[in-house]
Amino acid sequence: MTALTTTALDALGNDVPTPGYDRTAVKPGIVHFGVGGFHRAHQAMYLDRLMNDGKALDWGIVGVGVLPQDRRMYDVLSTQDHLYTLVIKHPDGTLEPRVIGSVVGYLFAPDNPSAVLDRLVDPATRIVSLTITEGGYNVNQVTGELDTSDPALAADLEPGATPGSVFGFIVEALARRRAAGVPPFTVMSCDNIPGNGHVARKMLASFARLKDPELAEFLETEVRFPNCMVDRITPVTTDADRAALAERFGVEDGWPVVCEPFTQWVLEDDFGGVRPPYEDVGVQIVGDVEPYELMKLRLLNASHQALCYLGYLAGYRYAHEVCQDKLFVDFLLRYMDDEGTPTLPPVPGVDLDRYKHQLVERFANPEVRDTLARLCAESSDRIPKWLLPVVREQLAAGRSITRSVLVVASWARYAEGVDEQGEPIEVVDRLRDKLVERAQHNHEDPLVFISDPDLFGELASDDVFVTQYTAALKSLHEIGARATLEAL
């Protein structure tokens, strides 16, 4: 057994590729907020590929954690010299490990906020990237404006406050760079949000305006916010994953990352200065990301929502189980064909029919073992962004919403907190208490769940939507998820 550290890399043998570059020569160039599994399986992996080709050695990543639960990542990465193992899980059971070395530092902001600011203000930092989840942008789901109810944002708006939130750090750092005559960094959002760069600019500028209107204008006009689409299924790392890595490859890693073979990154070429040559390792650099991001959000991400609640209610617990069931596969494909696809603009260079069937194959990979509970989490940040835009466009065009509406109803049924076998469901959502309280009144008031204007806007007063939603919820209550799909 080899504990993963720099000095132990030579002992890993040929079965586990390690960085082929001198990590002492790697200099920080990117600060990344939200170092989780996805970032380490995706953006950090692409940079590691570049570094193995002898490129981008001045683009090392310094991670930042701002939440209390980020301390564990700090502890693990610090112990391992910021190395970790990325394990690709192939459908035939093959594991493909590689040690990634592109992360060269990690700062836990609550312990040392000044160190975070120093790194952000350093002229060497030319990109600040984000995977802070859909909820991290503090967007009111209906108005599209900044929601300042987050206590961390409110604290950062106090005069003279030491930053504690992602927004607080970025805005303070930009103010200091501007005062020092240092060019602003590029802010690169890598979260699953339509127009993620536009959203990041709007929310950060709104936050800055509450502190300094002049700074907000600078941020809107001088800071670049490229849009991008990112894709790689990255389930939560389990103890079994750690054990498999140790038993099969002799690597003791406190927090490896597991993922599927597929990966995609479509990135808008809109940077304030130089950037890594991402195109050299397969990143699609384009002028307009929107067609690709809508394709991914409304087909892949919305399909995850389409399978997770219904699948869970029917007794499944993993995505691959659902996607090995023809009834559910037919439902997913009909959603994608009849409702998701008609809302998409042309997607250059993509065969949509092949893409949709490839999605089902990816979901059905039994080795990834992506839990439905993970896909069901934080629905209040996901359904309004990924699925309700499909509903609205289909309604406006007079087209079918049958399957989209059933997904919304299945979320409402799932939020009741009890499955069809009477077993409790652990609802994970930042709005959990409000959602569960509403859902528990679904029987006596079928519209109670969708009557929250902050989530559903005007849909609770749309006759077509309401009629189909109440019928779908009634069916889920009376005959269950599987029989509802069979009837459909």
TrEMBL record:
EC assignment: 1.1.1.17
Official protein name in the record: Mannitol-1-phosphate 5-dehydrogenase
Coiled-coil residue windows: none
GO molecular function: mannitol-1-phosphate 5-dehydrogenase activity
Catalytic activity, reaction form: D-mannitol 1-phosphate + NAD(+) = beta-D-fructose 6-phosphate + NADH + H(+)
GO biological process: mannitol metabolic process
Alphabetical list of PANTHER family matching this protein: MANNITOL DEHYDROGENASE 2-RELATED, MANNITOL DEHYDROGENASE DSF1-RELATED
Residue ranges of domain Mannitol dehydrogenase N-terminal in the record: 29-276
Keywords: NAD, Oxidoreductase
Residue ranges of domain Mannitol dehydrogenase C-terminal in the record: 288-476
Taxonomy of the source species: Bacteria, Bacillati, Actinomycetota, Actinomycetes, Propionibacteriales
Family that this chain belongs to: Belongs to the mannitol dehydrogenase family. UxuB subfamily.
